[in-house]
Specification:
The protein has 246 residues and is α+β, with helices and mostly antiparallel strands. The protein has 3 domains: 72 residues, Integrase, N-terminal zinc-binding domain (Arc Repressor Mutant, subunit A, Orthogonal Bundle); 87 residues, Alpha-Beta Plaits, CATH 3.30.70.980; 70 residues, YebC, transcriptional regulation domain (Alpha-Beta Plaits, 2-Layer Sandwich), CATH 3.30.70.980. Helix content is 46%, strand content 22%. It has a 4-stranded antiparallel beta sheet with strand order 3-1-2-8. It has a 4-stranded antiparallel beta sheet with strand order 5-6-4-7, sandwiched between helices.
């Protein structure tokens, strides 16, 4: 598939999330609470908290909500019983899926995720069955870029690994440990970031036919509607024709 298709898939995922921004707020706050509980309330000394806050801000979580979430987590209240769980499996058309959740009830979350896979005619796999197909990266989305060369140079100077995109929208990738530094450097250079977060990217995106792609997107929507699910990644590129239908 073309680079344009690859970028369009990213833009679709961002747009789909924007439609459900209200539902995202509780998930973002929960991630902040857990990070503050585990590493303390100071983002300067807690990289996980700094990243959770940056992601929350990129989705317009109000400052008061962020501060309350930090206070709750650091105070030993909400967030103390939550844990991160990861599910792997194969979806429609053989697409590899990794689902990351934050839950206070493993049995409930596992049952919900398994049900969604089953309804899609798919199945969960064993730990490690598809994770090897992905790399964890820091991913920054920038929109409204008018000078590609200038952005590429700024991203390289900031320590990023790559910058690619089209139509003024770009994805900057970096090592997870460099996300905060790259994010701060790009903001200091005057760029407005649409999002900045740690996520998984497929090492080798696979092709899928139109019907399979529609089923993949339907499954992604179902997973993201679950209150416990924080992130859903897959390794296929959605064809342009299918993206145009969304």
């Amino acid at each position: 598939m073309s680079g344009h298709s690859k970028w369009s898939t990213i833009k679709h995922k961002k747009a789909a999330t924007d439609k459900k921004r209200g539902a995202m707020f509780s998930k973002l706050a929960r991630a902040i609470m857990v990070a503050a509980k585990e590493g303390g309330p100071d983002p300067d000394g807690n990289a996980a908290l700094a990243n959770a806050i940056a992601k929350a801000k990129s989705y317009s979580l109000p400052k008061d909500n962020i501060e309350r979430a930090i206070a709750k987590g650091a105070g030993g209240g909400e967030g103390e019983n939550y844990e991160t769980v990861t599910y792997e499996g194969f979806g429609p058309g053989g697409a590899a899926f990794v689902v990351e959740a934050l839950t206070d009830n493993r049995n409930r979350t596992a049952a919900n995720v398994r049900s969604i896979f089953t309804k899609a005619g798919s199945a969960l796999g064993a730990p490690g069955s598809v994770a090897w197909k992905f790399d964890r990266k820091g991913v920054i989305i920038i929109e409204g870029v008018t000078d590609e060369d200038e952005l590429v140079l700024a991203a390289a100077d900031a320590g990023a690994d790559d910058a690619e995109g089209d139509d003024g929208a770009y994805r900057v990738t970096c090592e997870p440990t460099e996300l905060a530094a790259v994010r701060d450097a790009l903001e200091a250079a005057g760029y407005t970031l649409a999002s900045a977060e740690l996520t998984l990217l497929p090492k080798q995106p696979a092709e899928i036919d139109d019907e399979g792609a529609r089923k993949v997107l339907k499954m992604v929507d179902a997973l993201e509607e679950d209150d416990d699910v924080q992130d859903v990644v897959f390794d296929v590129e959605i064809p342009e024709a299918v993206l145009a239908e969304q």
